[in-house]
Design goal:
The chain is an alpha+beta fold and 304 residues long. The chain folds into two domains: 107 residues; 190 residues, Muramoyl-pentapeptide Carboxypeptidase, domain 2. It is built from eight helices and six strands; from the N terminus they run αββαβαααβαββαα. The longest helix has 106 residues. The radius of gyration is 52 Å and the shape is rod-shaped. Bound molecules: zinc ion. The site of zinc ion (ZN) has 6 residues, from helix 5 and strand 4.
Length: 304
Amino acid sequence: MDHPIWKKYMFWFFVVGVALLLAFLGYQGYVLKKQKETMEGTLAALETEHASTTAALQEFQQKFEMTKAERDIIEQNLQNEQSKVGVITNQVEQLQGTVGTLTKYVTTDKQLLAKYSKTYFLNENYSPEHLMQIDPSYKSSPQKEIWLQRDMWQFLKRMLDDARAQGIDIAVLSAYRSFDTQNQLKTTYKVTYGAGTANQFSADQGYSEHQLGTAVDFTTSKLADAVSAFEKVATYIWLINNAYKYGFILSYPKNNEYYKFEPWHWRFVGVALATKLHDENKNFYTLDQREIDQYIIHLFDPIP
Ligand SMILES: [Zn+2]
């Protein structure tokens, strides 16, 4: 008898259970739907926000690109202007250099680098524009007046000071000689030795160089006027090895073809030309005058 009752209750239990389950599922479905709706709303909001952010970013990027392009243009213009200024500065500097070179060329006495020969003398009326007397301590005889070309003095003084600092006995025997002085000297020689010997001794080429004021005859305290032995003294060797550094050259070296050997007679031609002649083992008088003339502008360039 128990069975039917049990069965009866079982049936209602089942019905109630299914109803509860359906109600639960229905509620869950409602909750999920609500959640979905909320999430969709959030997503939509996010999408809108993303879209506006993207738009703002794009706008910013565009502006940034434009600014960058503008900056590039400005920079380019600036560089153009700067290079124009550079070109102009260069041109001005070149012009200044050219003017400087021209000024040097125009103002430097061309005779100071001229070659003289038995047929090409310096004009008898020529005299250096600026002459000065040298300090007695550099002269072989303190009583004697010695004049020389003013711009050359700093080179000669430095050479004499350096030589003496190295223990070299050196003094100036003679420098500038006017046409008249030279003529008198030549006449004296002629009287003493006869015309033929006089030409060999004192004249012609050597005289022109002394009339320039840039040729110097050196001696030592022992030799004084007796310069014929100058070839044998240490002073001569020192000059051979060092004079070019100060712009001096031996005008008439041993075995030259144009004038008698004068070891005491040195001419100032500027450091550049003297160094070239020394380095290439050449003589001033065998060089072409046109080649020599290129050194006019460097004549008084300072000792490096
Ligand atoms: Zn001389």
